[in-house]
Amino acid sequence: MKELHCIVPGCQWHTRHDTEAEIIRRTTEHLRETHGETAIREPMLETIKANIQPEKTRAA
């Protein structure tokens, strides 16, 4: 499982999924709906990809 926290400073949104493709899809949707991004350009996609991390283990 992988996770990503929003790349916009101060935003608490995050997502997790098995595939990077789904994380990218969810993140671009979030950026459009919440932060008003109308165009997701290559540099932003690269930033999203660079910030995808393995999910941190949670205490049971």
Could you explain the architecture of this structure?
InterPro entries: DUF1059 (IPR009409). This is Putative small metal-binding protein. Pfam families: DUF1059. It is globular and about 35 Å long. The protein has two helices and three strands. The protein has 60 residues and is of the alpha+beta class. Strands 2-1-3 form a three-stranded antiparallel sheet, with helices on one face.
Features:
single chain, 60 residues, alpha+beta, 3 strands, globular
Count of discrete domains: 1
Please report the distance between the alpha carbons of the first and last residues.
16 Å
Quaternary organisation of the protein chains: single chain
Strand content: 15-25%
Whole-number mean pLDDT: 94
Number of strands: 3
**Tertiary shape:** globular
Secondary-structure element pattern, one letter each: EEHHE
Which structural class matches the secondary elements? alpha+beta
InterPro entries: DUF1059 (IPR009409)
Pfam family, one: DUF1059
Protein name: Putative small metal-binding protein
